[in-house]
Amino acid sequence: MPQLSIVIITFNEEKNIERCLLSVQKIADDIVVLDSFSTDATASICNKYSVNFIQRKWEGYSASKNFANAQAKYDWVLSLDADETLSETLADAIRKLKQGEELCTAKFNRLTNYCGKWIKHCGWYPDTKVRLFDRRTTHWEGIIHEQLIVNSNKPILHLKGDCLHYSYYTIEQHYAQTEKFSSLAAQSLFEKGKKATFIKLYISPAVKFFTDYFIKLGILDGGAGFTICRISAYTTFLKYKKLKLLHEKV
Length: 250
What we know:
Spore Coat Polysaccharide Biosynthesis Protein SpsA, Chain A; about 40% helix; about 250 residues
């Protein structure tokens, strides 16, 4: 039976990490948790389980995930964030896959919980992710919204079930993340020589809201859908506003 390493990155994830670890117990042959020196109970929770708990200075999403993959015992890796958990259906699908002669690169849908509500629209679902892979032929790239680069021509299997993503417990958390991600995105655009034009600054946010709320049916997610689409539009505005300020400082 092929063996599988579970790789997770953490920072102050005491609300989420145990749920994540419990969801992979029946499929994990090895669990690596790379922690960026959490100041809450993350470490003590992880130490309750059979986990290779490693602490290392944060170097960004892609660099951290690539380093964590390298610490795994086995070449086949299932990469999860601490605020994600496998549904029973998805865990069963991975377990059945392990019963074969060899594993294969696989993807699955991610269903997000926003302040207690499961979001089925807004462009947030199915949010398909490739997360089961051979580390010898893959690597992570990108500053934010990191992308897994698969250097293989073999087909990618789509597994049944959802990865359950517990994103934000409060709207304040969403706004805090917006500040962080918009700054990173603005810096990335600045380094690529991009400019914050009038259209990007004022028209793009409106287009973003209209697309997510009406075209991608965020309206069907009720009040949570409206909030998500509004903050997503604000994030777009903030990204270009910060980009404009970066150019003004030059």
